[in-house]
């Protein structure tokens, strides 16, 4: 139900209705009460897990004073409103990620789903699969209700919580404004979904997000690898002990995938065709396919930015192909 990391910090694995099964949320004891870092999706078993964890730890709702959300994805942001309503706690995010929340969750969802479907059609997604993703996008709103008032964190200043002084680190790639919390004195890093232990974080290109998320991610990984980290607490799976080595492994993974995609696309392929080659689509759910195609696009756009591929528009579709 929960795992003590230190005397003042607990890891709470919260169930999610996704293949990952759990998201790691964190409870930090501060002078004024407790701080929640990430919340999970609004989902019955998740609510039950939080309630049981609070009961086991002897925590009352009134003792939850602050909620920090690392990024806008529903498995991290989704229950922030539910928790804020019960506790009266303020909810904080990076300024960039507040904008992501507004784009993702505050505009009419049919409009957002339509824009995403148009984007995928342009990149070769077949109509039947595109329709499945459209419906999946429409269904996502149930996991982010109610929506809290959000306060912007000052990313330039350390955040004092209890005995710890946390640096707030911008960690782009998985989400444009994702933040991580670093206690340099204890060499402890709450790394969210920036680095994961035995899977690679999804790096996706979305219609309204930054132009080259993979370039941002790889540059950020280099900066994070320079940190002195004794233990990194990730948003999924187990904590990471050999953090610098894991950063280097992820860079190597992307280098290999970039080479693979470049070789396949040389003769002219849509992003969907490259996605089908790299990931396969027949066994993927709509949720998985949406992330597979957007991750493929992130790699193709990176290759384009590096001068290794170019794009052409043919009829109503974009083709990526060799520069020569």
How would you summarize what this structure contains?
This protein is α/β, with parallel strands linked by helices. It has helices at 44-57, 74-77, 80-87, 95-105, 109-122, 127-139, 213-225, 243-265, 271-279, 286-305, and strands at 3-6, 9-15, 22-30, 33-37, 64-68, 90-93, 150-152, 159-161, 164-170, 179-183, 188-192, 231-234, 309-314, 317-322.
Describe the 3D structure.
- InterPro entries: B_lactamase-like_C, Metallo-B-lactamas, RibonucZ/Hydroxyglut_hydro, Sec-metab_biosynth-thioest, WH-like_DNA-bd_sf.
- Residues 22-236 form the Metallo-beta-lactamase domain.
- This is Metallo-beta-lactamase domain-containing protein.
- It is built from ten helices and 14 strands.
- The chain has helices at 44-57, 74-77, 80-87, 95-105, 109-122, 127-139, 213-225, 243-265, 271-279, 286-305; strands spanning 3-6, 9-15, 22-30, 33-37, 64-68, 90-93, 150-152, 159-161, 164-170, 179-183, 188-192, 231-234, 309-314, 317-322.
- The strands form three sheets. Strands 1-2-3-4-5-6-7 form a seven-stranded mixed sheet. Strands 8-9-10-11-12 form a five-stranded mixed sheet, with no helix packed on it.
- 40% of the residues lie in helices and 23% in strands.
- The model has no long low-confidence stretch (mean pLDDT 96).
- α6 packs across α10 (286-305).
- The protein has one domain: Metallo-beta-lactamase, Chain A.
- The chain is α/β, with parallel strands linked by helices and 324 residues long.
- The radius of gyration is 20 Å and the shape is globular.
